[in-house]
Amino acid sequence: MSRTEPITLYVTEQRKQEIEDRAEREDTTVSSYLNHLIERQLRVEAEDELSAESRATEELQRVIDEGTRQLRDATEDLRELNAKTGVYTIANFELLKQNQKQPAIKDALSTGSLRLREDLDLDTEVDPEAESEPPSDDDDSNGGDTGGSLVEELRGS
Questions:
Q1: pTM for the whole thing?
Q2: Structural domain span for residue 108
Q3: Are residues 73 and 18 in the same domain?
Q4: pLDDT 10s digits, 51-67
Q5: Per the domain annotation, does 1 fall within a domain?
């Protein structure tokens, strides 16, 4: 490619002499010498940009890897928490049913099942009026000493 476009450059007399001396040592013209310096500088800058992009890509990959590791750790923690919750729920139920009759247990399971299906935004408090009729004094089929449901006993009613 031929060089046909001129560029005017202003330098001190000292700098001009230094450039001319260097061009002479390389056995080339001042114009060729300066053109070579400019090409070399542009190449260095392009390499620096690529290097910066590469470092940014490496940093991004490091952040992704760290996020992935944290997500895996959180998932494992959640699995462990769910397992413990299940164990504690079953253990709690086993302990509670030792003191309750079958109808009270069925009532509590039914209430729990209904609550699980309700929208989380709704109030999940149990309305004692809405529950099944209280047992009569001679009816011991609903469990505990007070004759109330397991839900009432758990609520402290």
A1: 0.41
A2: 101-118+125-157
A3: yes
A4: 999 999 999 999 999 99
A5: no
